[in-house]
Batch of 2 targets.
Target 1
Amino acid sequence: MTTPLTLTPGVRPDGAALLTAAGEIDMSNTAALEAALESTPGPVVLDLTSVEYLDSAGLSVLFAHADHITLIANPLLTPVLTISGLADIATVHDGDLDAR
Amino acid sequence: MFAAEDEVGRDLALVDWRATPLGPPEEWPQSLQTAVSILLSSRFSMWMAWGPELTFFCNAAYRRDTLGRKYPWALGRPASEVWAEIWDDIGPRIDTVLATGKATWDEALLLFLERAGYPEESYHTFSYSPLRDDSGTVVGMLCVVSEETERVIGERRMATLRDLGSDPSVVRTEQEMLAFACRQLGRNPHDLPFTLTYLFQDGGGARLAGVTGISAGHPAAPLTLPADAPDAVWPATALARGESVIVPLDPASLDPAPLDPAPLDPASLDPAPLDPASLDRAPFAGLPAGGWPEPPTQALVVPLLQQGSAPYGFVVAALNRYRPLDEAYRGFIELAAGHVAAGVASARSYQAQQRRAEELAELDRAKTVFFSNISHEFRTPLTLIMGPVEELRGRLQGADAQVREELEVIRRNGLRLGKLVNTLLDFSRIEAGRMQASYEPVDLAAVTAELASLFRSAVDKAGLDFRVDCPPMDEPVYIDRGMWEKVMLNLLSNALKFTFEGAIGVTARREDDHAVVTVIDTGIGVPAEEVPRLFERFHRIENARSRSNEGSGIGLALVQELVGLHGGTISADSAEGAGTRFTIRLPYGSAHLPAEAITTAGTGAGATTADPYVEEALRWLPVDDTGEPTGDTMRMPSHDGSTAPARVLVADDNADMREYLVRLLQGAGYVVSTAGDGMEALDAVRADAPDLVVSDVMMPRLDGLSLVAALRSDPRTAAVPVVLLSARAGQEASIEGLQAGADDYLVKPFAAAELLARVRANMDMARLRQHQARWRSALVDSLQEAFFVCDEQGAVVEINSAFTDILGYGPEDLPYTPIHPWWPDAATDPAAHQQVADAFSGLLGPGQGSYTIPVTHRDGHRLWVSVTFNQAQDPDTGRHVVVGTFRDVTAEHYAIQRESALASLSTSLSQAGSLSDALTGALRELRSLWRARSVLAAVFDHGEEPTLTAAGESVDWHGLPGDRRRALTDLLRRPLLTPVADRDGVGILLEHPEGQLALWVDLGDHRPFTGEDQVLLSLLAGRLAQGLVRAHQIDQQRETAIALQRAILGPAQLPEGFAVRYEPATRPLEVGGDWYDTIALPGGRIGIVVGDCVGRGVEAAAVMGQLRSACRALLLQDDSPARVLMALDQFAAGVPGARCTTVFCAVLDPETGRLSYSSAGHPPGILALPDGSTGLLDGGRSVPLAVRPGATRPESETIIPARATLMLYTDGLVERRRRPLYSGIDQASQAVQDGRNVAVDDLATQVMIRLAPAGGYDDDVALLLYRHPAPLEMTFPAESSQLAPVRKALRSWLGQCDLPAQIVQNILVAAGEACANAIEHGHRHTPGDIVRLRAEASVDNLRLTVADTGRWKSPEPEANAHRGRGVALMRAMMQQVTITPGPYGTTVDMQMRIA
């Protein structure tokens, strides 16, 4: 069984590309995340507000795209992003999981 | 085994054991061999029975003491056959022992043994103890016996002898005395089924004077026995000669007809007519049986001996047919008869004294009459001769012998002349018709007998037999007493004078209308030609041999005159050398007498005195150094038992008085010694006590009263009679003298005759007392118990022969002053010494008491005696003394010691929980039993050196002194169970399940270890060996039992989060009825049950198994704990032994921690909360199972908070003696609380250890722990698709753990990284392998483990940054991360503090 993850491409009101992820991101579905990110050229805002889990495999994908993504993450993910150092090289905005 | 003892062992070896249920000895179990070895080697009397038929064994002592003729027949036979005759008595006792395993104890049980060819009365004190086989089952019994027949029978006989001597009245008539004696004899119908007492009659023959147990007049008890009748029932003739006779009491002995087994003769088909006479002559048919079921078969007839004379009579004592007539039995009967004889003697002597006293008064009056009547013409010249003669005798004391002898001649002849004058006066009166006769009606026989009795002493003293046969007459005879006295006295004096051997006899009989009195002697007789002249006045027969040349030849003439005055006649017939008979015939009635001289009975007075006659006669008899003539019936041996004349000590400071007294007493035949004052007298008496002391009151140094007091205060001289002489008159003085203890008191001046009379009377009294003393000492000596008298200081001053027999100390060394020589030595045996010292202080205290104490025989061996004592007052001195008896209870003591030692060893062994406990406990018992310094056991198992166990000192083999090691090793070469003693201890070898055990009892310095101790040691060692085998079996059983119980409880497929323990009780090593259970229920819930059945062992385990299964099934049907327990109530009501089982039943929802529960009387569950507090699950409580079947049970519900720990248990965990249950529960709560961070399985171990009592659990314990939530345990294939579900489960579990979301997230990340690594790296080449994840939370810690079967790559951040990132994340999320790579996989262990 593949970890549930939905990736929805969109456009932010400011016209920036938006990828909204919901579910969990682990080794089993990082390929999908990577594909989604690669299919969206240019800067992209990755909304992880509805992601409940993100492991190092997911982080690896994010690191690979760190230079052109902006992250919106809920507090649960903050420690992972901080500890991994992703927060240092990618822009991370706090997202409110509950506000979604 | 049989070689342990030669005698019985040899015969045991000859028994055909294959024919018995025991089979050949080489196949006997160890326990039987042990028992037989102990039996044979014991010196105590024992027998034992073993196996289904109770096959009989005994040892040599039993053979000797009890088995008798049944040996060796009895060996190997069924006990019921060996003791068929007493099986009714002992069979039930043996059954009891076999059924209950408890020993019996019987004291002095009467058994009729047929060991000597007849049923024998015997008494036995014995105990039956169970004998167990190798498996501990009772299969036989051991009887340790001590036969007490001698003691019981001895006591019974003693009681009779004591009763015989207990007559409180001083004087009795012969009839009263015999009646009393018969009452006492009659109270012992066992030793004396019946008795007859016959007294010989003067005219020959014997009359029945007393019976016991039979009625007078029974054919065997004729009222009279004719003299010299050969076919008399009892052989009176032999008895008259003083011989004892055994008479068989065959009921048919004189009655052959009914038992004649002659062949039938057709001609005499009619039964032979019974001869009535023959029936009459069958005196022994229908004899009474006394205290027994069957009449006696023998009687011992013993004479009533009279010293120096023919017996008074005899006693027929029917004998106890159940006892042999041995020396003791014969002695008893002789002592009893001796007492009757002494009673007859004293009754008769008392009667004679009474008579004599009356006669003396009568004579006194007669004397007065005589002297007032005598004319001056005769009296004056005689007085004028005798007066000066007496004067001269007094004044010429210092003169030479010849002068004094001549004076004696004058005096003697003066006396003789006086008597002659008086006789002449009678004649003159008769001739002058002035004889003032006064005829009164009297029983001539009685009067004659009385007169004759006056001569008895003289006749006896002459060595002659004196036979007075004067039965009462039916009609009075009128006589003048005075005259009749002269008649009789003259005739008797005459007879005595001419008779040197044989007898003198007096008879009185009625012959037609005359009373006939004869005086007969066996003297020299009178030549036929002299007979006609016998009655001539002054006729003397020349050259006749006589005791004296004195004689006027006038006596018989006077007799004839006096008889004539009574209207009677006298005749003589005589044969020279054969004897003489005088026959007086007096008519009855008064018609022949002058009417004016007739008076009524009792008014006439005797006219004369017997004294001159008797005194004269006595003077004929020798009083020289050769002693008194033999045959004096009244003579008693003096103190030293010889026949020397009585000795008198005269104490007076006045030499004249002293000499006067000496003369006077010597004249009366006494041997006299003198003392100048009281002190001298005291010394003399102490040096050699005389028969009597005559002492003045006023004396220098020590006066008479003080002398008496001093004599009385010394037991050796207390009995010496003292007559005091004093110038002080008046009653007060005499009372003072008598109070001081003087026997008599005379005031000076006193008449010589009075002094002599008093001396003689007191001598007689003393002899009577001595007789009593001799009786007393015979009685005391015949006591089987030792007897002693202690003075106030505790010195033993008197003992009997039993005392000497028991202790070895004889009367020759009396007194024994404390510390008595038989006390145990204070140096070598201080405890025993102290015991005796304690008893001794009790002895000197007031009152009475009894002790059982150890004493040392003179030859050094140890005895135990049971002492009973009482305070008493010495009747002679008034001092307090202690009178005591004791008996030898050594055998009893050791028997009891043996029993109790065996019992306490058995108890110790039975309580032992293991082989080593058994040995340690037994050594402790042995040590305390002998108060040993130490007791050491060396087990020569298969190690290099023996395994040591010690009580009293802790040592190892090399710490032992070399000689001790050697002694222990040497024991290995000894036979089993045979004690080996040396200087300071004793050793014994026995079997130990792991090898041979050498046991050493170190007694310390030279303590005695007696033969009894050795027997005891071998018994104990035997018991120990058996006990060790059992303990060994218990050890094995215990292991089996635990394995079994654990097997029942199962290698629990426990749900996660649970931990359980079961521990059987340390003692008595049995499984119990405690259980725990968990049941997986539908819906993921878990049923939890902890229960405790009543009882232990297999039964409880069986009940437990049924309840456990039932409870399981019920829970699967219904998830309400209360309803499950109610259903279980119904079930338990039908299972024996299930009632009162306590159960805690709960249903847990592991997701939520919701716990519903109900308790059937079970201790409350303990809940240790994460905040450090503790709660009890004490709701839902009701009674134990099946107590109230049908009653509704309550149910409670609680939520187990996350990371709380639940503990359920049985009461064995918390229940301790002398401690409230809650204190145990508190302790348990604390233990759980303290372990809240420890994994539950480790916590279970910690709790069991922490709560265990010092000696281990004494009840079994079941324990169940659950920590909520249960740890998460997952296994999944190493595929990335598994990550999400794993994460989901973990998230859910972490939710149960009640953790903050961020922490949950961190953990999820860390776990996810670990799992991802496992999938990605561990199983790169083998996808699908298994990864395990385990998460466990305690109160403040969370532990996560992820294990795979592969190899991780080392983190290489340079090459592969994101992979190293995973590990970094783990380390960042968790506080502790350990990655352990191994050849078969890698484990990641991560922990996080969560509180």
Target 2
Amino acid sequence: MKNKKNIIYVALAIIIYLLIFALVETGTASRQLQNLIVPVLVNIMLAVSLNLIVGFLGELTLGHAGFMSVGAYAGCLFTVSCDLPAFIELPIAFVIGGLTAAVFGFIIGIPALRLKGDYLAIVTLGFGEIIRSILNSMDIVGGSGGLKGIDKSGNYTVAYVLTMITLLVISNIIKSCHGRSIKAIRDNVIAAESVGVNVVYYKMFAFVLSAFFAGVAGVLYGQNLGIIKPATFDFNKSIEILVMVVLGGMGNIKGSIIAAVILTLLPELLRDLADYRMLFYALALIIMMLFSSNPTLVELRQRIFSRGKKEVG
Amino acid sequence: MDFIQQFINGLSLGSIYALIALGYTMVYGIAKMLNFAHGDVIMVGAYVLSLAAVKAGLSPVMSILFPVVVCMLACTVLGVTIEKIAYRPLRNASPLAVLITAIGVSYFLQSVALLIFGSNQRKVDSVIPKFSLTLGEIHLSGEAITTLGVTILIMICLALFINFTRVGKAMRAVSEDKGAAQLMGVNVNSTISLTFAIGSFLAAIASILFVSSYGFVGPYSGAMPGIKAFVAAVLGGIGSIPGAMLGGIILGIIESMSKAYISTELADAIVFSVLIIVLLVKPTGILGRKRITKV
Amino acid sequence: MALVEIRQLGISFGGLRAVDNFNMTLEEGQLYGLIGPNGAGKTTIFNLLTGVYKPTDGEFYFNGELMNGKTPIQINKKGIARTFQNIRLFKNMSVIDNVKVGLQNRHSYSMAAGIFRLPKFGRMEKEMTQRAMELLKIFDLDNEAEQLASNLPYGKQRKLEIARALATEPKLLLLDEPAAGMNPNETAELMNTISLIREKFKVSILLIEHDMSLVMGICERIIVLLYGRVIADGLPDEIKNDPKVIVAYLGE
């Protein structure tokens, strides 16, 4: 039963890749759509990695764009400054970007051990702003003008492989005993400690792993676009990723993937509605929370949902 | 001399932070939530102030009083409405859900302002009469003096209100234990509504002082001061009124000193670093007290 | 040597002396009852024994080892598990996963095994499922294994908490009002279950309870707490007739 499911996932992954391959190589997809493939995959990586902290660990961080930027700068600075062939250079850049972000994840994890909820949210927000201010004032990385001249070697195949690795690692961890420990911390810290769950270790682990993949996604972003600017990785970017997680359902990896795809494609395809994007994000956050946490509205939702089910069955 | 001038600038900036921080700290202390949208209420207040500033047909006193009163009313109503629509339904929900909703509300206010007024900054006339004090080389603007004076006055009034009135007592009771307060006949919902009303009223005052000093407002004008004010509230000890005042002043001075002597670009980074250090060393803030978690 | 040896344990919160001069000796296999009016400090003692609070004075030996200052995690690893007065389940996880989290204390596998699905992952997961189901069966929860813990009725939630605690393979089990909110039938059934797990798992039990019939029926010794102090310690019959206890419970 479980094996069957896994085979379906693998088959699905291959089919989707072949589909993208066919669309791009035959030129069926428009230029605009082709340019969106990597950003979609970057956002999937960001959303799924953020979901590990928000959905599974149950802590809110508002600095995911900060992790992304640290990784992007570290990885892209490497490829800019050295002159190796892409197939050697890129994997090293991803590892450098990921590890650098992971180090920052560790540093941010330290206050996360002592703080909870609102305090942690503000600390991570502050962290994102600190990173941005520092990058803005650092001349070696181009200051506010950004780091230019990055090889555009991050194509859709590279992006697809990285996304699959991210999904595999995070979803396998969630389904393992380690994932259960992380979820136990989310549901009740005191009870988790009482049955011997190492809260410090798992909180730290979730932060480091999440930051790692955000960092890799950052490198990918830079290697695809050819330029990275501090302003890209601001608070709004962190919120955008959070909206993907919330809209897809906290603690739901498939949901994050779908939300990331929709929220990346929609604003680009419906340019006229671009002005309403922020408004949509805001309403999405409020309405999703009300319908998932208000007892009356939850009941209403369940009633509608179960009626729909009955009709189908 | 420059140092003293910077110190005074910091003091004036800090008292605006303190005023905003008072709103945060009250709401946090009583409703146990970070009202992320508090800063954006200030932004809305500033827009209202600029729209209500109609010079024609009003006496000089009225032309100041009218926009001020409209701004206060608008902010108070907005604060209470936000609480009623977005936060009250989540009274017993997880803190994570409430926080995400609050971020949503903040974003909502910003995006609505963006849609109505566009991203350009709008000029707002100061409602504070022009005057200034010059002592030797030190220059004190009317805005700075008014801000400092108003903030101190409000802090004293608020402390008296919380400690010596019936309603204030109810507020403290709700902050200690919602359930027990309810059993003792305190109407928790209306107490929390009132807290939001007072918090938003303070936001209106902060908005008037803030925009009078800076002269411009944009859709994102409230976000940064709001977050910094929350930092100030945490620094001073969340839930503590003198703490909010102290935290605000300290933060204002740190910021203006960093801008003057280190780097303008890094000033925000320094402010946030201070927050992170404080939270690691003394998570309850300077004047905060420790709570025992019940198991 | 006794399993638990507590000497002059005490804790103050600010000026409040919540527990003072608490002494207790619990032999291996014993079932001890801890009773007293509300606010007497019973749960505080549990929190002291499980490392949630740090005692301000006194010593607590478990298996001859000093436990003062150890964290809840360390204490659980040494073999003490507990339930909570206000149920603390992992609400958004399935019933069986709740138990599995408890099992992980002693049976687990590396991160790599989890990520790459190494053979150890499959083997251990299978073993854990099997053990968890055995435990659930004892508490008659095996039919609800895949349900969310929060969907269980109240009585079953209490049972699940005991199952989760037992999953950590403790030598000492602390039960904080296990029968609270249960009807007499459920309480009687719970008494049987407690006796059963004591035999089957060779576990010593310290029990906080308000239901007198339950306490008197199954406890071998009882300690009575009032305002943080022990006012009586003895056999159920002695406690029943102790004038100090009667005054504490019924007034003069």
